[in-house]
Write a structure and sequence with these properties.
The chain has 20 helices and 20 strands. The longest helix has about 40 residues, at about 15-55. α12 packs across α13. By secondary structure, the protein is of the alpha+beta class. The strands form 4 sheets. The protein has a 9-stranded mixed β-sheet. A 6-stranded mixed β-sheet has the order 5-4-6-3-2-7. A hairpin with a 2-residue loop joins β2 and β3 (about 90-95). The model has no long low-confidence stretch (mean pLDDT about 80).
């Protein structure tokens, strides 16, 4: 305790420079803690959203087997429909109230009666902006869903009250709301692993470096002061505790300020929202675990770094007081760098030899481990690379400015790197984010110019079918029938697909048709597809039809005549090997049992929205399949992009803050040397060149290593991701531009660090 009090007294009475250093440490710790709290809050936000989703899932009381619902007279029924609204899901829950009352879902006081709808605030705004959307929501607006019934403020959700007959014997029985897990979580576990992996590399690794930099500010001045205390008789451990007192005090004040700054930021950002990701302020509130990690973990890290940085002054105080030459930096960085590079290079070789790993469980552990090892090794090896380069450049150069700069970096290889490390880690992390975005782009990119819609015709009428075919925006349609299965294991039985369409209808569905004749059965053949071997010419297949409650079997014989067509869309509308029949082949007033109406339109977002609205206007409860568009996946990708955006912003803040804090501290620490050179006749231009070279040269080396190692880590991640892209050459110019921008910023920031006023008092012998 005596040493801790001594450290605090020295902090308060050591002059303005010491107080400035303390404030820099506090500011740096506050920024770091604020960023750390933001990262730690993300899992809590996602968990809160999934908890509200799970609480509103309709369910029923089940029997002992846990499979079947217990039937009770008067139970209500529900039917849930989820449609794409751009890249967001529009969820509609159709509720048919029974005679038995049940507890309403969270956010509602009672279940909607027939003709009533309850909508989320965002959906009400969408209805006002797009009146056609009301076709999907038949009824009168009777209220708003409360916050406890919505995953997030921007959710598109509605409860629609209908009569039991409107569900047409569809829907599921429900007696309660709430399950242990959400049917569609905000992020799947595999996607959440991607987010954790990326944020660990983008935020947490640079954050650890940044907090260490803040704890080691003015290392030379503090080391000389601690050496003096050691020479006055203070013990070795006591000297280390004196130094740790200052760092712990700064970290504690910084942690308190950082937590307060995060609380304010959470209130502001949650109300403004991010693209595709919004949350309630309470979801992002500080949790006890976050407070403990930030309030205890950061001071503990500062205590460890403070004691470690005072080790030399405590062990050899005379060498520190006499400014002895520092020992060459150790090559301990090879310990994490070599195994990390081994994993990364191994995956890259596997990608080059077309032996991409299929064990995603092992890769999900090895890849984050490799990134952390490579990043840590990169930071630890930078002093070694900087010193080696400085020695060689100093021997070869004839420039006074460059020679002075390189000799200073040779003597003190870690000083300039405290300034450069944050920017180096930022470029390294940017490459990782680029790899994740490439993988997501492979999943979400929609290059097809068309969009198809599949509607089951089971239980529908011919009038509805004709209405769907005439929906505005639809430019092609056909009925696709499936032959009857002869056993309960129908997926293994030979089957035939029949397309009921005229030649004109077929031309609207595919790109090119050659030799089509109306009224003639023909076997469809696309040379670019693999045709089904089950549809051999002459084979007969049964198809079930119905008419006024009666069933009839129609047999279709696969014709020998072949109709060649080309369907070069990303998702083929018609499968090669199907049989084309004219619509008149179906007996009058008969309807197929297993058939799908396929509609086709442009893939433009506004067209897709108009077609879905039109389909809902005919029958709001219709389930519509949209091949190629998985709205839950699109929403998850949007959330991931937003979270990665948060990570990059935090990484940028950390990198820039590390540079500003370390550069300011270095300028204060270098004043005696700059003054001495000025008194010896060095011009201000020469001093500025020396200052710039001291920062730019090691930074350029670090950024070059960051680009190379970052690209290798990115490629290995893409190899383990299972996508089609392993090597991203298009991203190299962007990374190089970022690296050059960082060098330019560092050079400009180093120019003002040489003051105009010369203070001879700074040059004195202790």
């Amino acid at each position: 305790m005596r040493e801790l009090l001594l450290g605090l007294r020295l902090l308060l009475g050591a002059g303005r420079g010491s107080r400035v250093r303390f404030l820099l440490m506090v500011a740096g710790s506050a920024i770091g803690v604020c960023c750390l709290a933001a990262v730690l809050a993300i899992p809590g936000i996602l968990e809160a959203q999934d908890g509200r989703k799970a609480a509103r899932v309709p369910d029923c009381k089940r029997d002992a087997s846990g499979v079947r619902c217990v039937v009770t007279e008067g139970d209500p029924f529900e039917l849930t429909r989820m449609d794409p609204y751009g890249s967001e899901p529009l969820t509609r829950v159709f509720v048919a109230r029974g005679t038995r009352r049940i507890e309403p879902p969270p956010g509602l006081r009672e279940l909607p009666a027939p003709g009533e709808i309850f909508v989320s605030p965002r959906l009400r705004e969408a209805l006002q902006r797009e009146p056609a959307l009301a076709q999907l929501l038949p009824g009168d607006d009777s209220g708003t869903i409360g916050a406890q019934g919505l995953a997030h403020p921007d959710e598109l959700y509605a409860y629609v009250g209908v009569g039991r007959e409107e569900l047409e014997d569809g829907g599921d029985r429900m007696t309660t709301f709430g399950k242990s897990d959400a049917d569609f979580p905000t992020l799947e576990s595999s996607t959440l692993d991607i987010v954790r992996f990326t944020l660990a590399g983008v935020v947490l690794l640079p954050l650890a470096v940044f907090l260490s930099v803040c704890a080691k500010l003015s290392a030379a001045a503090r080391a000389r002061r601690l050496a003096a205390l050691r020479l006055l008789g203070l013990s070795r451990k006591g000297t280390q505790r004196v130094n740790a007192a200052e760092t712990v005090a700064a970290a504690s004040f910084g942690a308190a300020l950082g937590l307060g700054a995060y609380a304010i930021t959470n209130q502001l950002v949650s109300r403004i929202g991010l693209p595709g990701f919004k949350w309630y302020p309470a979801d992002g509130a500080l949790s006890l675990s976050t407070v403990l990690i930030c309030g205890v973990g950061c001071p503990a890290l500062a205590w460890y770094v403070g004691r470690a940085s005072a080790r030399n002054a405590a062990a050899n105080p005379l060498a520190v007081r006499r400014s002895a030459v520092e020992k060459a930096p150790g090559k301990w960085g090879l310990l994490p760098l070599l195994p990390g590079m081994g994993i990364v290079i191994g995956y890259c070789v596997a990608g080059l030899t077309d032996n991409a790993p299929r064990d995603t469980t092992l890769s999900s552990v090895l890849m984050p481990l490799a990134v952390i090892l490579v990043g840590t090794g990169l930071v630890m090896m930078l002093p070694v690379f900087s010193r080696t380069l400085s020695q060689r450049v100093a021997r070869a150069t004839h420039s006074v400015s460059l020679g002075l700069a390189m000799r200073r970096n040779e003597v003190e290889p870690g000083g300039a790197l405290r300034v450069a490390t944050g920017l180096v880690m930022l470029v390294f992390a940017a490459s990782l984010v680029q790899g994740v975005l490439i993988e997501l782009d492979q999943v979400s990119k929609n290059t097809s110019p068309i969009q198809t819609y599949d509607i089951s015709l089971a239980g529908t009428t011919a009038d509805r079918q004709r209405a769907w075919e005439k929906v505005e925006g639809v430019r092609g349609h056909a009925v696709v029938m499936q032959s009857r299965s002869s056993s309960e294991f129908g997926q293994f039985d030979p089957s035939l697909v029949v397309v009921l369409a005229t030649c004109d209808q077929l031309r609207n569905l595919v790109r090119e048709v050659r030799g089509c004749v109306d009224g003639r059965p023909m076997r469809l053949w696309d040379p670019n597809q693999v045709a089904s071997e089950q549809s051999k010419p002459g084979t007969r297949f049964p198809f079930d039809l119905r008419h006024e409650g009666h069933r009839r079997v129609m047999h279709v014989k696969v014709p020998r005549e072949v109709l060649r067509y080309t369907d070069d869309h990303d998702l083929p509308v018609i499968d090669s090997g199907s049989v084309l029949l004219p619509p008149s082949a179906i007996p009058a007033d008969h309807r197929p049992d297993a058939a799908t109406l396929t509609l086709l339109s442009s893939s433009a977002p506004e067209t897709v929205r108009a077609v879905l609205d039109g389909i809902g206007g005919v029958d709001p409860t219709t389930e519509v399949g949209t091949p190629g568009v998985v709205v839950t996946s699109l929403q998850q990708i949007t959330v991931v992009r937003s979270l990665l955006g948060i990570g990059m912003v935090l990484g940028l803040v950390i990198g820039v803050a590390a540079y500003l804090v370390a550069a300011t501290d270095r300028a204060v620490e270098r004043k005696p040397q700059v003054t001495a050179l000025s008194l010896l006749g060095a011009r201000p231009r020469t001093l500025r060149a020396v200052q710039v070279a001291q920062v730019v040269v090691p930074l350029a080396v670090g950024l070059a290593l960051a680009v190379v190692l970052g690209k290798l880590a990115e490629s290995s991640y893409l190899v383990t991701g299972g996508g089609a892209v392993y090597w991203d050459g298009a991203g190299i110019p962007l990374l190089l531009a970022c690296a050059l921008g960082a060098v330019a910023v560092a050079a400009l920031g180093a120019l003002p660090l040489v003051g105009r006023r010369i203070d001879p008092e700074l040059v004195r012998r202790d």
